[in-house]
From TrEMBL:
Name used for this protein in its record: Glutamate dehydrogenase
PROSITE patterns assigned: GLFV_DEHYDROGENASE
Molecular functions (GO terms): glutamate dehydrogenase (NADP+) activity; nucleotide binding
Quaternary structure note: Homohexamer.
NCBIfam families given in the database record: PRK09414.1
GO CC terms, sorted: cytosol
Source organism per UniProt: Bombardia bombarda
Catalytic activity annotation: L-glutamate + NADP(+) + H2O = 2-oxoglutarate + NH4(+) + NADPH + H(+)
Keyword list, A-Z: Acetylation, NAD, NADP, Nucleotide-binding, Oxidoreductase
Family per record: Belongs to the Glu/Leu/Phe/Val dehydrogenases family.
Binding site for NAD(+): 197, 229
Domain Glutamate/phenylalanine/leucine/valine/L-tryptophan dehydrogenase C-terminal, chain residue ranges per copy: 190-448
């Protein structure tokens, strides 16, 4: 691959999957899957296009737009749209690659994809963002559809932007169809969709707690990073189940609870309002009960914690921060963000798991732990196909079932393919990687996307 430009984020995601497969017995039992890995690591299609829009001063602006349609063996491409100045092909390939196996773990018929643009919504007016969304969808509409590719929101794309994009698609294609998820409730959206990733993360960790004999959330001290959609609803669900939230963060810094203080639902509601205005946590008045640490993530600033939930962005837990979490007494860490931990951090957690067995910290990767968001997107697609809305209770129960199945799928696959010693907790990262890969590889084989000699 020396003829290809370096793509560090994608290479990290690929290497994590490949190492899980290599260090298991999968290739010993089924050596033909090495061929499948070669095929599945290349996107089916990469679309790149320019987006020309006009700012409020009447000046022409141009950005790069992308859609990586990674794999459709299990269903239409499915994955979010990210509007952020950091967006590039490496990041979107990594996200689309991860999305392929994450979607497989939901058990729903969805392939994997990801897209977006290097457009930064911060500092833009509502009118400028709307004009950008219309211009972006003018080109993207040629490549998506309810049975082809169904994008959703991601960083920088909330329900408001989804609305503008859907309106543009409807006018351009003259179709009212479930082409986007995260829609408004009166025009095809699903209940629980905004909450789904955060809620699903907590439901997943509930099974980790139970399996490890650690009880439930009551009294557990929980460190959370991020303060966007995922972090907000994860925090609210943790509190509802009796847990104690001790941190939230954003790109500017982190808020941490000292001593017996903790973050309350009222605090989270205030932060939600701040984030709607696209302001940082510096605008949050915590009345002295919390401390603000500028330019920092929470992991080395929290005291004793039981559970860590990275919910901000990729590579937000480093090797040193992983060691700090182990030293803080954390027993469980699960990613609400995609690839939230560096490979070095994962190595720390996995080494602890092997050495200390049942008393060790137990790590769950984002492709399993945060699949609740895309799962409810899949449920939204099903409701759109039926032209029928489901109740909050119906969607929430289906979400709980999907997260339970994702947990046990990874757990049981690890038991099947990963050698272990007595008393050792199964490797959820290896088990989830293998389980997602096998589902996709088998579908691709049956459809003729790869084959072996007779």
């Amino acid at each position: 691959m020396s003829n290809l430009p370096s793509e560090p984020e994608f290479e990290q995601a690929y290497n994590e999957l490949a190492s899980s497969l290599e260090n298991s017995t999968l290739f010993d039992k089924k050596p033909e899957y090495r061929t499948a890995l070669k095929v599945v690591s290349i996107p089916e299609r990469v679309i790149q296009f320019r987006v020309i829009w006009e700012d409020d001063a009447g000046n022409l602006q141009v950005n790069r737009g992308y859609r990586v349609q990674f794999n459709s063996a299990l269903g239409p491409y499915k994955g979010g749209l990210r509007l952020h100045h950091s967006v590039n092909l490496s990041i979107l390939k990594f996200l689309g690659f991860e999305q392929t196996f994450k979607n497989a773990l939901t058990g729903l018929n969805m392939g994997g994809g990801k897209g977006g643009a290097d457009f930064n919504p911060k500092g833009k007016t509502d009118a400028e963002i709307r004009r950008f969304c219309v211009a972006f969808m003018t080109e993207l509409s040629k490549h998506i559809g309810a049975d082809t590719d169904v994008p959703a929101g991601d960083i920088g794309v909330s329900g408001r932007e989804i609305g503008w994009m859907f309106g543009a698609y409807r006018k351009i294609r003259n179709k009212f169809e479930g082409v986007l998820t995260g829609k408004g409730l009166t025009w095809g959206g699903s209940l629980i969709r905004p909450e789904a990733t955060g809620y699903g993360l907590v439901y997943y960790v509930s099974h980790m707690l139970e399996y490890a004999g650690a009880g439930n959330w009551v009294g557990k001290r929980v460190a959370i990073s991020g303060s966007g959609n995922v972090a907000q609803y994860a925090a609210l669900k943790v509190i509802e189940l009796g847990g104690i939230v001790v941190s939230l963060s954003d790109s500017q810094g982190t808020i941490v609870a000292d001593g017996n203080n903790h973050i309350t639902p009222e605090d989270i509601e205030t932060i939600m309002a701040i984030k709607v205005k696209r302001q940082s946590l510096t605008a949050f008045d915590h009345y002295g009960k919390l401390k603000y640490v500028a330019g920092a993530r929470p992991w080395v600033h929290v005291d004793k914690v039981d559970i860590a939930l990275p919910c901000a962005t990729q590579n937000e837990v480093s090797e040193d921060e992983a060691k700090a979490l182990v030293a803080s007494g954390a027993r469980f860490i699960a990613e609400g963000s995609n690839m939230g931990c560096t490979q070095e951090a994962i190595d720390v957690f996995e080494a602890e798991r092997k050495e200390k067995k049942g008393a060790a910290i137990w790590y769950a990767p984002g492709k399993a732990a945060n699949c609740g968001g895309v799962a409810v997107s899949g449920l939204e697609m099903a409701q759109n196909s039926q032209r029928l809305p489901w109740t909050t209770e119906e969607v929430d129960e289906k979400l709980k079932t999907i997260m339970k199945n994702a947990f046990f799928d990874g757990l049981n696959t690890a038991k099947k393919y990963i050698p272990d010693t007595e008393g050792e907790l199964p490797s959820l990262v290896a088990g989830s990687n293998i389980a997602g890969f096998v589902k996709v590889a088998e579908a691709m084989f049956e459809q003729g996307d790869w084959w072996t000699k007779a």
